[in-house]
Amino acid sequence: MQRLADILDGISLMTASIIRWLALMMVLVQFAIVVGRYVFGVNSIAVQESVLYMHATLFMLGAAYTLLVDQHVRVDVFYAKATDTTRRRIDIFGHVVLLIPSMLVLLYWSWPSVRNSWKILEGPISVGGIEAVFLLKSLIPAFCILLVLQSLSLLIRLLLPGTSASKADA
Domain Tripartite ATP-independent periplasmic transporters DctQ component: where (predicted)? Predict the structure, then answer.
């Protein structure tokens, strides 16, 4: 089971190592947009939309890695002062009752829209924009699948005796 958890963690680590460069690319493109518009008077809707696409990709595909390294948003009302055993129980509850079911519901309800978008190769958001909304919508099922896989990895670690659930604990 430990090996399976390591493989699932590897998916998040590999995804993060690839998409982290989008943050730098996004800043550079945004800088070029500002310089182009205010210095040279040049503007492109497609280039502006590319920042939206990069931001969405960074957020949606980076969420599983964020969960892996325990940097996700957590409501610390009870968690902060809880014992390790109570924290483990809260985490197990969160994965089994909240995270995994909500991702499966989101995947189920978003799939028809994603499928239809691919079927018609849905065009740009704005006139003159990137003609690939179907790719943007594909981030939704990818987000759900990556989070479910990472959640299963953390759940395996939480249920195995003597293991740490997150890479941040290691």
Answer: 26-159
